[in-house]
Each structure stands twice: as C-alpha cells, then as structure tokens.
Amino acid sequence: MPVDRHQRQQQDDPFEGRIGDALRRAGDSFVADGQALVGGGAAHGRRLLFRRRAAVLGGVAGIALVGVGGALLLPGGGGGPDGTSTVAASDAPRDDDGKVSGADLVRTLKRLMPKGEFSDAQSRGTGAKEGPYARVVYDDGKGAAAVQVALSRLDPRGDEALHATQCPDTNQGNIGDCSSNELADGSTLMVHRGYTFSDRGEDTKLWRASLVTPQGYSVTVSEWNATLEKGTPVTRKAPPLPRSELAEIATNPYWIKAIEAMPDDRAEPSPSTDPSPRSVEPPLVGGDAIRATLVGLVPKGLEVVLDGTARTDFAYVVLDDGKGRSLVQANVQLGGPTSLFGPDAETLPDGTKVVTRQGPGEKGGKGVVMWTVDTLRPDGTRVTVSAFNSGAQHTAATRDNPALTMAQLKAVATSDEWAGIG
Asked: Order of strands across the sheet with 217-224?
C-alpha cells in the first residue's frame, strides 16, 4: 500500500507526526487569521519548533531544520508558508458578528468574482476575536475550487509584513512564479502562484495575492484547484482566477473599509509598546549577520556560488568544489532554554551540547541526503548547520555526499565566530 505524505512524516519523525495530528485536530474547529500566522509567527514559530524537536528528540531521532519561510504552522486560513488553511465547519455566514458581518464579506467576495456557481460559504465578521475572513467554493463550469479572503492588521515595518509580501527564495523550494511590487499608494502587493506543499507532496495548487498597506492593513486572497487546500483530489488543472483578477480582488477598497471596522483592541501593538517581562522574546539574529558568518567559515578550496538569507534566524550558501553543488544552511537563535538536548548529546569542554544526524532530505529532491550538526551553548545560543548533496533540497542530488564532511560541519557549528552574533 502506498504511504501518503502525512504517514511519511510520522515515520521520519514520530514527534512531528504527533504535533501534526494535534494541529489538524485543532484545525477542524478553527480558522486562523489569513496572513497573520504566516509572518507574525514565523520567527517565534521557528523557535518553538526548534525547542520542541530538541526537547523530545534529544539527539536520538532526526532533527529537521526550518529554512526560509519554515514557520511552525498553526491550522487556519492562510496559516502556512504556502498559505494553507483548515476551515471550521461551524463558521456559517452571519449578519450579526461585526460592523462588517461575515455574511457581508461573503456577499462582497461573490460580487467581485466572475459569474459562476457558489457553495459552502463560510466566514467571520469584523467582530470575531479570531479575525475576519470569507470563503466560498466556486465553480465556473470547469471544476469546483476554494477561494478565500482573510483580513488583519500588522506592523507594516515588521517581519510579518515582509513575510506577507516578499517572494520566497527560489533556491529553497518549488515556489512557482511570484512577483512583488509597490503600488502608487505605497502598498506592497505580492502575487504568488505555487503549490500547497512546496515539495509537491500533493498536486494541489495554491495561488494567492497578499496586500499590505502603509497603515498595516493586510488582505490575502487565496485560491486552490480543489475544494479544500489539502487532502482532497484536485478538481481542475489550475485555480480559477488568473493573476490579474486575483490582484484586482485583493486591492478592492472594500476590504480596507472592513479592516477599519475591526475593533481597536484587535490592532497589533505598536513597536514602541513596552511588553511585560513575561512576553519578552530573546533578540532575533539578523539573516545578513548569519550569512556573513557562514560565508567566513566555509573551508578553503570551496567556492561560494550562491547565498541567501531570511530577514532573521536563517541563511544559506551553495558551495562547489568542482564535484557538484552543495547547499549548506544555518539556523541561529539566541537566549533559548539550555536544557533542550537529551542525555545522549555530546558535551564539549565549554559546555556546548552537540547532536548529529545523517538522513534523507526533506523537500523531495531525488537522492538528496541531509547531514546536520545541532549545537546548544550554555548561554542558550543554538546554531544548527546542515549540508546537502545538491544545490537545493527540492532538486536531484548532484553528488554522492555533501561538500562538507561531518567533521567540517561540526567545526562550523561550534565555531567561536557565532559568539556575540546577536
């Protein structure tokens, strides 16, 4: 019997499978704010994923890294790096759930779309604590497809806005095609046409338009070529709305008026707000600093032919020693718990704990292997470095082994150059 994508994840990492099951169960009754979880939770999510994996795995089972856009994903409308969501069956449109009701949002979404048949409408109005959204199943005669709009507020200068409107790195997966442009009013609009799963574990396509205004109003319109974003057969070759119509719906002024109707207490705190001590997160590490450090630690004789970075926490280089390209990536976080790694981890003289792993790649590239050295220093700094036998995880292997040996990876991950990087 063939093993599906979810089963493969459980076999590779039982803990991750249990986390996934819990999230999916929660998703049966919850729809998240469309883009808020994507960007706003990205850095925090990476930390949670690091901590959970290390706390349970302790260096015995596999440790999978989070790269660009690899946030810990909660279920809900647009809540994944690919915009995935799980819709609550109880969210029937209502006329009494906000100054702009869920029923109003559904009616507007239908009005803005081409003629066709609509069914399975779901929504929340601007008064809903979880945030407003509208979703329909649309059929233009070529197959039914889910279409959704999600509205939120965010810091227009923060990571959340950047993740919402910055095209993903082409070296980090099968991203499809993407464009991001500044509009005349200062808003940024990204239109991304890709897949629900970047590793193409399912054939469901996800196309979305994400708008962020200078005021921090966020509108995300998503569409799929299936009635659900995952777990169901595709119903058509592509989602129904072309790029231009997707962008036109996302930039319609009605959504801005709806966001303005959200209660003030739904607004995100300003950057100047003093958080309570309990809510303070450790400082983030800039991606450019990680990239510079990683490049400086590349052993002699290896050429850096490509590099890239996320805004925080992550960077990568692609190396070539004349025997084929090899991706090396680094994740760095500061000030985390110092008791994450289990008793099987190696402890160095300075107290740094080290876990190593060799296993298959994670993004579907044929024959790709992933070698990882994960380190945790006494001050809570965590540096995790992985190398692959391909220039990108989603492309086929270009060589038998990564360009860096396990000893070289360990030297990079435990280097004193990471000290004080934050």
From this structure: 117-124, 133-139, 144-153, 217-224, 205-212, 188-195, 177-182
